[in-house]
Specification:
Helix content of chain B: 25-40%
Helix content of chain C: 25-40%
Chains: A alpha+beta, B alpha/beta, C alpha/beta
Strand order of the largest sheet of chain C: 2-10-9-6-5-3
Order of helices and strands of chain B: EEEHEEHEHHHHEHEHEEHH
Oligomer: heterotrimer
Largest interface: A-C, 50 and 73 residues
Structural class of chain C: alpha/beta
Number of helices of chain C: 7
Radius of gyration of chain B: 18 Å
Largest sheet of chain C: 6 strands, mixed
Number of strands of chain B: 10
Distance between the termini of chain C: 7 Å
Distance between the termini of chain B: 48 Å
Number of strands of chain C: 13
Largest sheet of chain B: 6 strands, mixed
Strand content of chain B: 25-35%
Chain lengths: 371, 260, 299
């Protein structure tokens, strides 16, 4: 006896209750606080802010909790919230040369003015599980607090110039190319649909909030020969910059807060072209928070995407603007991949009908008769 | 309107630089209806650059290319609107690539390859499209029973025949050919050249054939342009240029062929 | 199930979720789309609280045109009670507080995924389609810059090459859904993945048809009474699916049928995919072979 499926609404409600229970886990275990997430999972928070395209540590931490640690889902939550926010104004460009630097290294010079500053990095740790972190008893944890040195940064007296600017003075590296339409406001991919060919401004915006895994894979591919960029890590810096706006009624800039940024400048070999002498070219990465892997990947991909502009062959996927930019947003890709879970009865029925017809035309009549 | 007493295509002062590198410089010539022009020279001589410029695939840095259209008479092909230029390219012109894979749609059958241009200009009767495709397979001496096979199942020589049929189906008046027999075995080459010569004369086609192979041009072309370092060093009737070369470079070219 | 229900809107967000600036931007895109039938207008698609690929284009179009006096119907696969339809209807009930309905004739806006209702639409109605991939030339040419040029120059021959291949290989055109159409004799258009069974309903429909592709950031439209032609050949004309069976519930022989697997032995039955149409027929006294198996009033 067939009864048409009804009650979708109740089934969905029940599913939501199960989801909440799964998120909470064993109620006997104390619930994480948003503050604990933002303080103790800062790298996860950084990623969600960057790809969620909204700098707010508390909301990002909340999204991570709500998504039960699924970062791509948390990014989606933050993005959907971001849509509803009014735009009160545009900030002035941040000046990373005036960054309060927590970490800064260059792989191209042994020493640079301002020095190499290792700062907080897992780079030189041995990746051995630290069992002291396993199930710390509350008392133990309290003792641990004391042993964790809250290193204060020495006050930074002067702005720390960017390494690339030093090369620039010699004319060995291309100028920071002003957009061809200098004077025009930069593209805004959150307000205008992406069009091709896209300017570097739009490309960098897409990459800055692009999926870390996707960009990492593309950057890696570019190093393995699916591109021709020959990169050096000119400078990687991470620290705090001030954000300022110029309110119309005041007419001068006032600082409204600080954000953490990771900036990467890649130096790339370049043979020169019809119009440009041989010189180093730049690939640029800038990301919210402390995310060196993402910022480096972004810089590699940025340079790959400049292949055509620089007169290179540009026939690898990493150099294909439409391929890279259309597929780097994980809110879009996750949604479309997972939409295959939605009902497709009608299309499937249409294909079924077609296939049966094709089969009946293909099968010899005797086979049909035997059915 | 087009007319038989003036050139079908005229190039004047064609110059093309790739940045600071010279492609070709100050190349001028005329092609008359039904005439086959050969352009010879070694790699890097600029012959392919000239071919691309006159077939609107590449914009020259200087100079003009005038084509005598059926409806509007002579037009500068680099100045006309893109729709008219594209229409010319898929109706009145043909382009035969050295590598047939560049000129064929490899994912669709031989019949669809031949039918594409017809459908692009509005043919909507499946049966008639198929009939025309069959007749063209016959004209390029291919097995009509292989109409529904994919190009990759054909040999190199057969793919080249298919590419030619695909181009000729809309009865173009001029066909541009870039080393049409380049990648083929000698015996296959000979048969293809024979076919081309027959088609060109039967259909009264004009053609420009770029090749480094003097044997090809002796067989196909009425007139010859010899290029070196981006410029034309000698021009004249094919037999005259090949049998009595005037320019030292042409002499070298001819002698190197005759005495390898 | 109540036919028309009103739910109070959620206090936290603006009417129909999107802010008024965004709605204006979307409406401008819609106006342009209506002015150039079948042309894909790029628009700055927003992230919505539902995932891209799950109807965000249709939702943004609906959110931008809906008013308090509208009555909304949402269907997926022809049915009002599939999960995605339920979810989207609940979204608008919550954020806009408009009355919703399952009856096609009572709705002023119908948002749909993959079907056009069997009940003919009226002049005052708007049909909003959810579109996954708007570009009809996409599988033939992956590059957006190139497909836009092909549209500009009406270089559509390659689409017929595809249909030619179908006939050469199978004896007939083997595209069963998302079947390409030419709108108003100009733009080639993807009707979204509706079965080709529904294509004839688009032609000269008195209702306004709007198409929203959220992830791909495109809006296009078919204004009322506009010609929509399914591509074909003179000697292989366009034709729609037919079933040997009638709907097991209402006996309809003129509607699109879903195949339902009823047991593990491969037993199956065919019923209308448009649940509202089927219910209405049953109420009107039509019967199918399995009549009585379903309570038309709902579960």
């Amino acid at each position: 006896m067939y009864v048409a499926v009804k009650g979708g609404e109740r089934a969905i409600e029940a599913s939501h209750r199960l989801l909440e229970a799964a998120r909470r886990g064993d109620p006997a275990v104390p619930e994480l606080s948003t503050r604990q997430v933002s303080e103790q999972l800062p790298r996860a928070v950084d990623r969600v802010m960057a790809e969620g395209s909204l700098y707010d540590r508390e909301l990002a931490a909340l999204a991570i909790r709500q998504a039960a640690g699924d970062l791509v889902e948390a990014i989606f939550l933050l993005r959907a919230y971001r849509t509803t926010l009014p735009r009160l104004g545009n900030s002035e460009p941040v000046d990373t040369a005036r960054m309060l630097v927590r970490r800064r290294i260059s792989a191209t010079f042994k020493d640079v003015p301002g020095g190499q500053i290792l700062g907080p990095t897992p780079d030189y740790t041995h990746r051995l599980l630290d069992f002291r972190l396993a199930d710390i008893a509350p008392t133990h944890a309290a003792q641990g607090e004391d042993t964790v040195q809250r290193d204060r940064l020495p006050p930074q007296e002067e702005p720390m110039p960017r390494v690339m600017d030093l090369l620039g003075r010699e004319g060995l590296v291309e100028d920071e190319t002003p957009a061809a339409d200098e004077g025009q406001p930069p593209a805004d991919i959150t307000r205008e649909p992406l069009r091709f060919p896209a300017g570097r401004d739009a490309r960098l915006q897409v990459l800055a909030r692009g999926d870390e895994g996707f960009l990492l894979a593309l950057g890696y591919a570019s190093q393995r020969g699916f591109s021709n960029t020959h990169p050096f890590a000119g400078e990687i810096r991470y620290g705090v910059v001030a954000v300022a706006i110029v309110p119309e009624e005041l007419g001068f800039a006032i600082e409204i807060g600080e954000i953490e940024l990771t900036e990467v400048q890649m130096v790339n070999q370049f043979a020169g072209s019809d119009t440009a002498p041989p010189q180093f070219t730049r690939g640029y990465g800038l990301v919210f928070g402390h995310q060196e892997r993402k910022a480096m990947s972004m810089a590699l991909v940025d340079r790959s995407l400049r292949g055509r502009e620089l007169g290179e062959a540009a026939d690898s996927p990493t150099e294909d603007e439409e391929f890279v930019l259309y597929h780097s947003d994980n809110v879009e890709s996750s949604g479309f991949v997972q939409h295959l879970k939605l009902p497709h009865y009608v299309d499937f029925q249409s294909e079924l009908e077609l296939l049966r017809r094709l089969r009946s035309e293909f099968d010899p009549p005797s086979a049909q008769a035997a059915e | 309107m087009a007319c038989d007493d003036r050139p079908l295509l005229s190039a004047r002062g064609l110059t093309r630089y790739y940045g600071r590198i010279l492609g070709c410089r100050d190349v001028s010539f005329d092609i008359w209806p039904g005439e086959v022009l050969g352009i010879v020279g070694e790699s890097g001589s600029g012959k392919t650059t000239v071919l691309k410029c006159i077939s609107a695939r590449l914009e020259p840095s200087a100079g003009t290319v005038t084509y005598d259209t059926r409806t509007d008479g002579p037009v500068d092909i680099h100045r006309v609107s893109e729709p008219s230029r594209r229409l010319l390219m898929r109706t009145d012109w043909g382009f035969v690539h050295q590598d047939p894979r560049d000129g064929l749609r490899m994912a669709v059958s031989a019949g669809a390859n031949i039918g594409e241009r017809l459908m692009a200009v509005g043919a909507r009767h499946y049966g008639q499209i198929r009939e025309t495709a069959t007749s063209w397979l016959g004209k390029v001496e291919m097995d009509t029973g292989r109409m529904d096979d994919l190009p990759r199942t054909f040999s190199g020589g057969m793919q080249q025949r298919l590419q030619i049929a695909r181009n000729l189906v809309t009865a173009p008046r001029i066909v541009f050919m870039d080393e049409p027999t380049g990648g083929l075995d000698v015996s296959v080459q000979a048969r293809l050249l024979d076919l081309l010569r027959g088609l060109v004369s039967d259909l009264g086609l004009a053609a420009v054939v770029v090749t480094h192979d003097l044997a090809v041009t002796r067989l196909l072309s009425h007139r010859l342009l010899v290029m070196r370092h981006g410029t034309v060093v000698e021009t004249g009737l094919t037999d005259q240029v090949l049998d009595d070369p005037q320019h030292p470079y042409t002499q070298l070219l001819v002698s190197s062929v005759l005495h390898p | 199930m109540t036919r028309v229900s009103t739910v109070a809107p959620d206090g936290g967000y603006t009417f129909a979720y999107l802010d008024e600036q965004t709605k204006r931007m979307v409406r401008r895109a819609i106006l342009k789309a209506v002015a150039i039938p079948g042309y894909q207008v790029p628009f700055a698609s927003r992230e919505m609280p539902l995932p891209f690929g799950w109807g965000t284009g249709g939702i943004q179009v609906t959110a931008s045109i809906i008013g308090r006096e509208d009555t909304l119907k949402v269907i997926d696969q022809g049915a009002d009670d599939t999960v995605n339809a339920v979810s989207i209807r609940a979204f608008f009930a919550r954020t806009a507080g408009v009355p919703t309905t399952t009856r096609t004739e009572d709705a002023t806006i119908i948002q749909t995924r993959h079907r056009i209702p069997e009940t003919p639409l009226r002049a005052s109605q708007i049909l909003v389609y959810q579109v996954p991939i708007p570009e009809p030339l996409r599988w033939l040419e992956p590059r957006e810059a190139e497909t836009r040029r092909m549209h500009a120059l009406q270089e559509y021959g390659v689409m017929h090459v595809r249909l030619y291949e179908d006939i050469a290989r199978y004896g007939h055109i083997a595209t069963s859904y998302d079947y390409p159409v030419r709108v108003n004799g100009r733009y080639l258009m993807r009707p979204s993945p509706i079965p080709k069974f529904d294509n004839p309903k688009m032609d000269r429909s008195p209702a306004l048809q709007l198409f929203g592709a959220g992830r791909e950031k495109r809006i296009y439209a078919v204004p009322p009474h506009t010609e929509v032609r399914s591509l074909d050949f003179d000697d292989h004309p366009f034709e729609v699916q037919k079933w040997d069976q009638a709907c097991a519930l209402c006996g309809s022989t003129a509607s699109f049928l879903d195949e339902i697997v009823t047991d593990n032995q491969g037993g199956r039955m065919f019923v209308c995919s448009d649940t509202d149409h089927c219910d209405a027929r049953v109420l009107a006294g039509h019967v199918g072979s399995a009549a009585g198996d379903r309570d038309p009033g709902g579960a």
